[in-house]
From TrEMBL:
Residues 1-28, 321-349 are annotated as: Disordered. Gene3D superfamilies: 1.10.287.2720, 2.40.160.120, 3.30.70.3490, 6.10.250.1430. Belongs to the OSBP family. PANTHER family: OXYSTEROL-BINDING PROTEIN HOMOLOG 4-RELATED (PTHR10972:SF184), OXYSTEROL-BINDING PROTEIN-RELATED (PTHR10972). It comes from the Eukaryota. InterPro entries: OSBP_sf, Oxysterol-bd, Oxysterol-bd_CS. This is Oxysterol binding protein-like protein.
Amino acid sequence: MNGNGQKHASGTSTPKDSEDSAVPAQSKGSWTSFLKSIASFNGDLSSMTAPPFILSTTSLVEYSSYWAEHPSTFVAPANENNPEKRAVLVLKWFLSTLKQQYSSRNEKLGSEKKPLNPFLGELFLGKWEDDAGTTQLVSEQVSHHPPVTAYSIWNSKAGVRLQGYNAQKASFSRTINVKQIGHAILHIDAFDEDYLITLPSLHIEGLITGAPYVELDSSSYIKSSSGYTAKIDYSGKGWLSGKKNTFTASLYQDGKEKQPLYTADGQWTDCFTIRDAKTKDVVETFDPTVTNTTPLTVAEIDQQDEMESRRAWQKVAQAISKGDMNTTSAEKSVIENQQREMRKQEKAEGREWSRRFFTRAPKSALFDALANSIGEAINSNLTDGVWLFDQEKAKDSAPPFQPQ
Ligand SMILES: CC(C)CCC[C@@H](C)[C@H]1CC[C@H]2[C@@H]3[C@@H](O)C=C4C[C@@H](O)CC[C@]4(C)[C@H]3CC[C@]12C
C-alpha cells in the first residue's frame, strides 16, 4: 500500500534497475508514478495518463482493421459448401486475427503502447485490394462515454460481412486487466448463415519492467446459426512452465462439447494447427510468418474527411513522434475543446450527435438467438446500446464507402 492506501503494481513501486527494464533511463521516475497511479484507476482506460514514451500515434478506432488483414482467410468460408468445414474455416480465420489484434503493434515483444482515445464520430475508412477482391472497412467511434467503437467489414464479391462493436472495462489487480464488452457477427450471404463471435479478456504482462505486452485470458466462443460452437481457451506463460500466447480450441455440435469434431492448438502469435478430433489428421494450419497481410489502403490525409482519424489526429501524432509533449497536450486540448463545444451545442438544441454509419438499437434478436447456449450477455448498458451498421446511412455517404 502507498500513503493513499492504494496498492502498487505487483507489489513493488519501482521498475527494476536491472538490464531487463525497457524504460528509458530518463523516464524511470514517470514510469514509477504511472504504476502507482494505475493501481487506483477507475476502469475507464481513456482516463489513464501514461508517460510520453508509452504513447502511440494510432487511435483505437483503427484497431477494427485487424479483423481482416488476411482478406483471403476472411472470405474463405464463403466457398465451402459443407457447414461443418465452413465452421472450421471461420475458426481458422478468427484465430489468424489474434496476432494482428493483440500483438502486431508489438513485433518486438514488450513494446505495447497506449492508443489515442477516439473522439465521438471519429472515422477510420479503408479498403484491402488483393486476390479476394475488394474488402471494405468502416470504423466509427459511436460513443465517447463510455468509449465504444463500431465497425463493418465486407467483401461484396464473396458475400461476407463482419459487423460488431466493442468497449473495454479495465480493472487493476497485480496488473491491468481488460474485459471486452461487445461482440461481432459474421454473415455469409450464400448460406444465410451467422456466426456470433465473443471477445476475449486480456491483461498486460511486463508492466513492472516497462516492457508491456498483451496476454489473453480465459475463453471466447464462436457460435454458428448452423449448429456448431467453437470454444477457444487461452493460457499464457505460467510461473514455472508454458509458452506465452498459447491456446487450445475445440469445435463441436451444439450441446456435444464432450465430443469435439475438431481440435486446434498452438500459439496465437505463431503457428497453429486444426485437427480432426477422431483421426488426429491435420485439416488446417496457419503460419503467420508465411501468410502475408494485405496492406489497408487509406485516402491521403488531405483527401480525408475532417472526422477521419489520421487527419484529425495529425498534429498530435506528429508531436508524439517528435517527443514534444507540450505540443502533444496543446493539440489534444484543441480536439477536446472542440468536442466539448459540440456537445454543449447539441444539448442546447436538444439533439444528439448523428452517427455517420451506425444506428443504436435497444437489442439484437440475432445476438439473443445465438448467445443463449454460450451464456453470453449483451450488456448493452455498458455500450450505450447495441450498434448496428445502417445501410441507409451508408448509401448517403461518400462514394467509396457506399456498400457495393
Ligand atoms: C501499455 C500499457 C501501459 C497501456 C495500456 C494500453 C491498453 C489501453 C491497450 C493495450 C492493448 C489494447 C487492446 C489491443 O490489444 C487490442 C484490442 C482489440 C480491438 O479489437 C479492440 C481494442 C483492444 C481490446 C485494445 C484495447 C486497448 C488496449 C487494452
